[in-house]
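Course assignment 3, question 2. Fill in each field.
Student: A.L.
Task: Predict the tertiary structure for the chain below.
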Amino acid sequence: NQHRVAHVSHSTNCRVYCVLLMRRVGKLLKKHWRILLTCILVAAVGYFALFYNIAHLVPHFSASEVAAQGSATSLQSIWNDPVNAPYKLLAWLPFKLGLHGIVWLRVLSAIIGVVSEFLLYFVLIHLFSRRVAFLTTLLFVFSTGFLHAARLGTPAILQILGIVLLMASVPLYVRTRFKIVPLYISTVAVALLLYIPTMPWFIIIGGIIMFKGAKQVIRELPVKHRVYIPLVFIALITPLIWHIIQVPLSALTLFGLPQHLPSLSAMGANLYSFAHSLVWRGTGPAEIMLVGAPILNVIEAGLIAAGFVTLVRSVKLRSNLFVIGG
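Answer field:
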């Protein structure tokens, strides 16, 4: 009888707990249904834009995707050519686990694209309202260049991530209570971004813009962190420095410069081709743009024009180098 009474009591307690739990869940859903619905819609849009049919929408793999996989098959190959090393290291992990398909490079690019989206939203919500941040991020997700880079199994997506990561460093520092943590995160990020072609230019421009603020932050640092942060930075870029010493021409690749200076006629033809591809008809390689489609679609071109008009009219925005750089 005692065992039966205990069993009935336990069953009653479980029922009461389940009822209370369901009521609490119901209240949370009633209170936060908009946030939940937004999260579901964002997940659905993100999956459709970046992951849907990623292996078969384009049935064959490009030469750059094959080359990207070939350069990430071992740590030794990454050490011998550390350009785009962050992407190669991430691509090496699934290869080491036995996932040798090139499609995993496309999945990796799509994941990096998702990280870029959240970082951009974080930056925009720091500057504008949630609605503006959400709509702007949505436009960014469906832009031609982003979709092309995020669904291609090459390191091209790292350039987008690098720019957004540099932009996010300031809001991250402002919003974080313990200021040392974002400083170390920024140090690691800047060191890794130096491995990505063209990113040194953005780091230099960002350093010029934020020089005064960074100088003040360094003055307020404890002495030990003034020593540790440079040591971390030097340790991370040592393989890159060694590679540049061994292959000096790789420095031109990192800065996005040609190894041989083209003629003036070739430079003029390239500028004309770029302007023509920007707003009218793409003529570049199929691996970096959709051939026949302009780099900027009608909506993007309209938004850029509206942004310039707003920038000219607003004195506050004209004095904000962060907004101009964005």
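Instructor remarks: The chain has a mean pLDDT of 80. Residues 2-51 form the longest helix (50 residues).
Grade: pending
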